[in-house]
Amino acid sequence: MDFDISYFEDEVRGGFPVVTMMKRGWAAGIRVLEEVDRICRKHDIRYFVIWGTLLGAVRHKGFIPWDDDIDIGMKRADYMRFLEIAPKELPEGFSLHNVFMQDRHGATLTGIFNTLEYRTDEQFLDTYYGCPAAIGLDIVAYDYLPREEKEREQLAEALDFLVSLIAQYDELDEKEKRHQLRLVETTLGTKIKYGDRTNPPTFQLGNLLEKICMMYTDDDSDELTNMMVWQHAKGYHFPKHYFDDHIDGTFEGMTVPMPLEYDKYLTMLYGDYMVEVRDGSSHSYPYFHLDYLKGYSALGAIEYEPKSMPYPRLSPNSGKRALIIFLVSEVKHWKYMEKTYNRVVDERGKDADIYVMPLPYAYKNMWGEVLEWKYDGNRFPEGLPLVDYEEYELDKLHPDVIFFQDPYDEWNDVVELPTEYRCEELWTSCNELILVPVNKPAPYPKEDERATKMLFNMVRYPGYIMADRICIEDVELRKNYLDVLLLYTGEATKNIWMNKLGIDGI
To answer: Among 45, 193, 263, 268, fewest CB within 10 Å belongs to which?
Structure first.
């Protein structure tokens, strides 16, 4: 799937910050899903997006902003056929992980990954949109529940017994291990080999667990479930006709199959699923190490580290009319500057000359190479007092105030501005430099670790260091920014950031 380069820009979705490397991870996940989809279409294997991936497709037309993985489901027969076919048809370097292949892997689940190591070779990065991490998805098997309650109770007892034994097996002494294995043999009517290093008991128990999960068929049942979820949440089951057919949905631009009864399925899982709730996850977020990959480019792993905070300055009052310049590159970002511009015009319009200067910009490929310079100057709203960047030399005119949006300088993986408009140059060209961030999230609770991680990765750029002020209207959001900026530069800089953000004692 081809993504427009602009897709990889930092953005805020649903009030949540999403950084460039997360976008690259998302796109790499879509690439893996495309390979699974290709195999399924070729061999008439039916799958469905499920759980958070389905919720994202319905509610966001893509990833839930604070999620980072892909989950799909298959009925057992399709699941087993896929496991038989996929190893022969997945691209080189892909790997499958499940109870049939790895000791102690979770039952009823297969993980697929595009690599098992950090990769920086050109072919890999070209294929996976510049994301060098291992990216994959989970395939969940859906099995049939028996109709009779007594049989369900017996099934639950067998699952609980095996899951518990596998979990505690290594802690048992040899005598107890043999006793428990004999108990498995007599209770479940099977044979467990002991002492076979190539086929350890835990591996045999995992395979037995999987066989028990798939023991019922379509004829025996009216409902489907994932057995490992059902083991802990007995309410997790649904009529099997929910997955009899599919309806097309959209997920980050890719057409994906959703269960025909997706509304009933999501309602069972989440209640009013259109209400956004940032809750926990079964894995750490993000599941790849965002800090380690931050700012990755072909030139190496780059991360802006400030040498020191810029010294404060006082602007002398020359007695002349003030000159205020608003710098904006992409016209789509004007909406984030417009409110500040209108406020400044209302407050300073009588004693200041106020202009908007559209700047040229260029998108870059993952290797940092500029593709094509663009200029949106003729696309801004009519009536704005625009000035031509080619005729207007900031260092000579030395405006009283410059408002700017791009804090990245050379550290932006996606967009490039001319070097004369980098933050240090702007700082020396005016009396006051004010940052108006484009990607401001909604205020969030201090304990929201996901939002904190993402915002932290949005502020580690020169513009935040060089700006005399940072324009954040919402008082609570200023506190969010203060928290992550202190994570960046340390508690000793607290007063500096409070002054930049306009925070009076906290």
So the answer is: 193
